[in-house]
Known about the structure:
L-arginine transmembrane transporter activity; membrane; disordered C terminus
Amino acid sequence: xxxxxxxxxxxxxxxxxxxxxxxxxxxxxxxxxxxxxxxxxxxxxxxxxxxxxxxxxxxxxxxxxxxxxxxxxxxxxxxxxxxxxxxxxxxxxxxxxxxxxxxxxxxxxxxxxxxxxxxxxxxxxxxxxxxxxxxxxxxxxxxxxxxxxxxxxxxxxxxxxxxxxxxxxxxxxxxxxxxxxxxxxxxxxxxxxxxxxxxxxxxxxxxxxxxxxxxxxxxxxxxxxxxxxxxxxxxxxxxxxxxxxxxxxxxxxxxxxxxxxxxxxxxxxxxxxxxxxxxxxxxxxxxxxxxxxxxxxxxxxxxxxxxxxxxxxxxxxxxxxxxxxxxxxxxxxxxxxxxxxxxxxxxxxxxxxxxxxxxxxxxxxxxxxxxxxxxxxxxxxxxxxxxxxxxxxxxxxxxxxxxxxxxxxxxxxxxxxxxxxxxxxxxxxxxxxxxxxxxxxxxxxxxxxxxxxxxxxxxxxxxxxxxxxxxxxxxxxxxxxxxxxxxxxxxxxxxxxxxxxxxxxxxxxxxxxxxxxxxxxxxxxxxxxxxxxxxxxxxxxxxxxxxxxxxxxxxxxxxxxxxxxxxxxxxxxxxxxxxxxxxxxxxxxxxxxxxx
Length: 596
């Protein structure tokens, strides 16, 4: 049992016999920022703003995007600190492997595979739908008549266009990181120019009165008019939906082995891309809700409808073509990290090792790219957009939560594990109430880890209370206040522990409050997801665990790494004892004998 627990919690270390990464370091700060912006500003900017404004938040969609941006920024800066610590391919997977252990790392890696597969498939399906709408839905009508799929959990017809697009993209990614990054930069620039045109043209047609509509002019079912027609609840529900518009920046962190100067460029690229993304969303949603009253928006294609209403048909077509480019960029950004996650997991032996083979000519993980391309293409062909989008968020939010927890664990950890203090009641009380220890040790690290677990449990209880109690009820207010107070006390207790003094190029500010807030927000958003999403998610996780316990736990390369470390340590100890043993036995060492 003890060996089994050791296997689950073994942490990734660098092998003493390991060679340098085989991936080419070619991506600079501009490439990384463009990758983050391109993978995030896709379907969201052209659909999400109108969709959330229409019947969820009204003109207050701008505030929803602000709240979502702040929540994403918490996750983003946690990612940035990890990128500074562990510049390796694999994103949250590698970060959790280094800090927490192999089992948690596999769980995260498996969830990230799901996130990127679903992300790729959903954007391909959205792009196919966009093309279809340009030709008056003739493709979907023809396929529906000739090849209908009459299965409840699948799409209405096989979408061969999205299938072909994903396979084409997989071939492009297999060709090389720099080539695919160059194409991504062009598409991202076109996307930003399109958004710029929308902001200028929309701003010229903006009417601030659309933010002050009286209640008697509003149709039934569209709230009370004004800036917040659906109240604070609508703004928060909108923020939960808008949060998914920021999913994608984490693909920057997967390029650790292909980035030039990753410790500096990855944190910078994450922060810069989040700022650009927020400004684009905020500007677009402001212009859109000022051009056209929120209840008249088209939730599927808001911009063509808005420019149609004001009679600017040329701009409508420019924006439509720009949207197609944007979706191509989003498709590239969604799929770019997928083979890299498979490569990292294959390289570590916890997924099939063949996935880690790098082609000598293209310097890309060729088999991983082909496998992930076929998988995503089949998903895009068989499932419809709603089913795909529902599944996308849960893996992402869990990954963000684990990353925030890892930041806390590492920040309060004794790096060398050299200062051992027994975890006894007198020592714990002295540390909690008198702050006796000024440097991290095994006991302060244990206090932090227990504090993090208790914080997560109370955050889950808070989310359950939010579901169970009425917000206006006295019982609900008292329960939420007590749990909220306990969460703050736990944060303060963690904050009083001594922190690691290791120097990094980037550190999360206001630790432990920012990572704790990130954990809390992510758990809250996970509780907004429906039961069927959780069921599908648990089935996917069960498949992953079957692979891990049947193959990964026995074939992990960390077993070999640990053996190599043990051999090196044993040889070092033997060589340091060798002269001492000779002197103790009355012999002179060889070098003394030779020099007479």
